[in-house]
Design a protein that fits this description.
α6 crosses α7. The chain has a seven-stranded parallel beta sheet, sandwiched between helices. The chain contains eight helices and seven strands; from the N terminus they run βαβαβαβαβαβαααβ.
Length: about 260
């Protein structure tokens, strides 16, 4: 069963939008009628994906950005509003992994890197999205956490710290902005078939094999399944949903 939405006249922004879950979500927003800003550290990829949407008669723009850099994040939001006039929805999705490491051996460099993108990068964009949305008195933001924001796993301390942080950021901001007409939620994807996970399956095969045994649904998730959850959270169908951390993980966190 395919669920459809009508976001005609609305504007969506997606970070990490040139591949994986971000790209699937950007495409879904566009197919639902929204104008889309594809934000990615790879400017050429962001622009190429935006051009594909434009060729399919959608409205889109590709913007290059280091999400951890607040000035660049602010400029990306400003560029989106300058192009399309407003901002109604955002999927703050950009994220990275670092190699699995014993907690006693994890480097400060890896800790700072993963938190700069996964936590600070969401904070930078949410901050500047909210500046626009509080003026409008409306909007919906979905921040990308992870099943790693809900549970702990060995050798993932820094990554899981970043993803737990996203949930705390989301819940606090959600309480603050719900009375102002802006809904903020998080999703917690499980193991999704994306380029990042493909690399992990190749380089960390034994660990990932064990991980997949805990996936009750018995398969990887699809980027399109994440997109569907994001669009629902941004839609009128989720109008009473505020501050949740929604697992989209094939049942992993039910263990």
């Amino acid at each position: 069963m395919s669920v459809s939405y009508d976001f005609t006249g609305q504007v969506a922004l997606v970070t990490g939008g040139a591949s994986g879950m971000g790209l699937a979500t950007a495409k879904a927003f566009a197919q639902a009628g929204a104008a889309v800003a594809i934000i990615d550290r790879n400017l050429a990829a962001a622009q190429a994906e935006a051009e594909k949407l434009i060729a399919a008669e959608h409205r889109a723009i590709g913007i290059g950005c280091d999400v951890s850099n607040e000035a660049q994040a602010a400029a990306a939001v400003e560029q989106t509003v300058a192009a399309f006039g407003r901002l109604d929805m955002a999927f703050n999705n950009a994220g990275i992994q670092v190699p699995p490491t014993d907690a006693a051996d994890e480097t400060a460099e890896d800790f700072d890197l993963v938190n700069s993108v996964n936590l600070r990068g969401i904070w930078t964009f949410m901050k500047h999205e909210l500046k626009v949305m509080r003026h409008q008195g409306s909007g919906a933001i979905v921040n990308c956490s992870s099943l790693g924001g809900l549970v702990g796993l060995p050798q993932r301390a820094a990554y899981h710290a970043s993803k737990h942080g996203v949930i705390g950021l989301t819940k606090s901001a959600a309480l603050e902005y719900a009375p102002r007409g802006v809904r903020i939620n998080a999703i917690c994807p499980g193991v999704i078939n994306t380029p990042m996970v493909a690399d992990m399956l190749e380089t960390q095969k034994e660990a990932m094999d064990e991980f997949l045994k805990l996936q009750p649904i018995g398969r990887l998730g699809l980027a399109e399944e994440i997109a569907a959850s994001v669009l629902w959270l941004c839609s009128p169908g989720a109008s009473f949903v505020v501050g949740v951390a929604l697992p989209v993980d094939g049942g992993f966190t039910t263990h």
